[in-house]
């Protein structure tokens, strides 16, 4: 049987834990120097990193409790000395170092990292002088970001009470360790987030303070978080970290650097007694200046008053001019009165009663003559208007359909009071209204033989004789001719007869000539039967059909 068959068997877990025990027992606590490679910070709070040199890599882990106590924040590229114990991770067959403490590998490494970070932040303009804000002369509220249990806050409060007591707000933070940088940044941002007029007063000035310490102790103030928060603060900020020889990156980003926390309180507030003394001195100087100015003005006023003339001298010339004017006043009044009296006498000569009476008589005669002329003209115009009215009246009577009705004609209307002008508008049995000169008659139209209604020769002769008698009666009764009608219409319209009307009147007999000729003839000329339709004027058509 070979030796391999006599070897003891181990499970994977047993051999893994055996290796783990061997490594931990053999090495125990060790110090390893190397450069930080990969640095990982998961949400659990642990830190996983790599320690490396030019040939090998050692995995390392910092548990959350130890990470909060670290004075140096692990960053890639930093050369450190890690203290801890070697162990294995059986889940992946890896060995690693559990780090309890870490420190830079000499001051040179930290200074190199500090210088590199300073250049980076300066290139972003966080240290530019134009970003610096002016401190308020007398802030009402001061916010202090520091540890509430250290001696720093006591020194600041004591110095504030001595110089000028104001309201001080303290934002408690850790001033060293892994969480120092983040807490300081949160304190600065928290003061800036306070609203104006809120329940907690907003500070007019912020002081970030810490006591002295080593470079590792002050490293939290060299981190980017507090530096960026100080640069972006809207409230003026004083950095008072460490002693006068200690310089951190937050000092470059602050608006003012104080050598010590006590010095920061002295820079923030003036001395109240000095202010009171200064005010008293200024008051005395002001009072003295006012008194000296009043005295100088009083002296200037006295000098000016000597150069002014006396009141009686100012009134002397005016009084003399008044006396001279009053002495000339009586003579002037007498001369003016005499002048007006002469003008009145001259005017009274031209205003004799005889001249006025002659002018009145002349005007009365003119008025009487014009009154007579007006009376004659009015009477003549009245006579003309009366003649025109009589002519228009006769014309209206001759043109009225009532005169035609008086001569035996009738006006026919239907039951709707519409005029009937043609026979074809009448139907059998239709009710009609006949208007005569002396009244109205209602009739009913019937169908009759037109042959039975045709007059005989004897009846025709009697009808013609009757028409001739009517015509001769009209002409004999001084009927108005068409020319007279037109002349009367023109006169009523205000149109004067022109050359054309004069020529036409020469060929037409006037009203008087027609009357004379009708009287001299024994028998007038018989009118033609067709002239009955044209005998009626056009206005009769507007009244209705005449029979």
Q: What about the largest sheet?
A: 5 strands, mixed, barrel
Q: Specify the number of helices.
A: 18
Low-confidence stretches: 471-480, 495-547
Fraction in helix: 40-55%
Radius of gyration based on Cα positions: 71 Å
Which sequence of strands runs across the widest sheet?
Answer: 1-2-3-5-4
Q: Termini distance?
A: 173 Å
Number of beta strands: 13
Q: What percentage of amino acids are in beta strands? A: 15-25%
Q: What can you see in these coordinates?
A:
This protein is of the alpha/beta class and 547 residues long. Helices cover 50% and strands 16% of the residues. It contains 18 helices and 13 strands. It has helices at residues 3-6, 12-27, 64-67, 107-123, 151-163, 180-193, 224-231, 249-253, 261-268, 272-307, 311-350, 353-399, 401-406, 457-476, 482-493, 499-507, 511-520, 531-535, and strands at 29-40, 47-52, 57-62, 79-89, 94-104, 141-146, 167-172, 205-210, 237-241, 256-257, 411-414, 431-436, 439-444. It has a five-stranded mixed barrel with strand order 1-2-3-5-4. Strands 7-6-8-9-10 form a five-stranded parallel beta sheet, sandwiched between helices. α7 links the parallel β8 and β9 (237-241). α5 runs parallel beside α9. The longest helix has 47 residues, at 353-399.
